[in-house]
Write a structure and sequence with these properties.
Inosine-uridine Nucleoside N-ribohydrolase, Chain A, about 300 residues, two-stranded antiparallel ribbon, alpha/beta, globular
Length: about 300
């Protein structure tokens, strides 16, 4: 059984991804670490606990993480995800978080599971960057690290060049890319990770948790997208469950600075370049397989 540690800032698309992984019989979610991003870390931590409670998985430990980016003030995404960072009818969290900070919890899980562990990153990479600073050996001791982040040929969703998770903490993203050889799942593919309206209607008609899932899959009217809303973080979950992505090893760098290029992710794809590869970048997504994988997982919860 695959061991997965989820590092996230729930967040509606984070919630879809987390729910899908919880539903998978082949996945053991060993914990959720939270980070400031779509909302404050207080809210993202409460949201994680509420999601787990909604699906009867209070057994999964939650570790609260970094409350701000490494060197910048926090820019939240509540205009997209709703007040507190998560829409839908959710139970009030009654459990507690772990005594360990998320950074220490990550290190503990790497020690416990080694190369059987996948770290699935669905928010700003602050927790991972701090963990790497404390223990540079982490990438050599885990199975893989898969992160939703970046925009290469696609336009950004915060600025013309920057995707939200990277934009919030580009210093953290730069450290992770340069030291951890992650798999990056950028907007180039997640913009296609859309569930059809008929599937969202099926969730809603089930009532209960299904209505909440439907809320997660539908953005506010003012930002709603034609052809269905992109559930970006769910592409990470779908790949862990069904290998829906095509990957290409590329030399990647992150612009860590102020100005119009803040948070840009750049791949050096020049012919004949001798730049070392730093990440495996998802370049294509099997949309039908994505829909089957995420849809089947979510429907199994209802």
């Amino acid at each position: 059984m695959s061991k997965v540690l989820i590092d996230a800032d729930p967040g509606t698309d984070d919630a879809v991804a987390l729910a899908a992984l919880l539903a998978a019989e082949a996945v053991d979610v060993v914990g959720v670490t939270t980070v400031a991003g779509n909302s404050t870390v207080e809210n993202t931590t409460a949201n994680a606990r509420s999601i787990l409670e909604l699906f009867g998985r209070e057994d999964v430990p939650v570790a609260r993480g970094c409350e701000r980016p490494l060197v910048r003030s926090l820019s939240t995404g509540e205009s997209i995800h709703g007040p507190g960072g998560l829409r839908g009818d959710l139970p009030a969290p009654t459990g507690t978080t772990t005594d360990a900070h998320a950074v220490e919890f990550i290190r503990e899980q790497v020690d416990a599971h080694g190369t059987d562990l996948t770290i699935a990153c669905m928010g700003p990479l602050t927790n991972l960057a701090v963990a790497l600073a404390l223990d540079p050996s982490l990438p050599d001791r885990i199975g893989r690290m898969v992160a939703m982040g970046g925009a290469f040929e696609a336009a950004g969703n915060v600025t013309p060049v920057a995707e939200y998770n990277v934009y919030v903490d580009p210093a953290a993203a730069s450290r992770v890319v340069q030291t951890a050889a992650p798999t990056l799942v950028p907007l180039d593919v997640t913009d296609q990770a859309r569930l059809p309206a008929s599937m969202t209607d099926e969730f809603r008609s089930a009532g209960g948790a299904g209505s909440t899932i439907a809320e997660w899959c539908s953005y506010p009217a003012e930002v709603r997208e034609a052809g269905g809303d992109a559930i970006h973080d769910a592409a990470v979950a779908a790949h862990l469950l069904g290998d829906v992505l095509t990957l290409d090893a590329q030399p990647v760098s992150v612009v860590d600075g102020d100005g119009p290029c803040r948070g840009a992710t750049i791949a050096d794809t020049r012919r004949g370049t001798d730049a070392p590869t730093t990440a495996s970048v998802a370049t294509e997504i099997d949309v039908n397989a994505f829909r089957r994988t995420i849809g089947d997982a979510l429907l199994s919860l209802l």
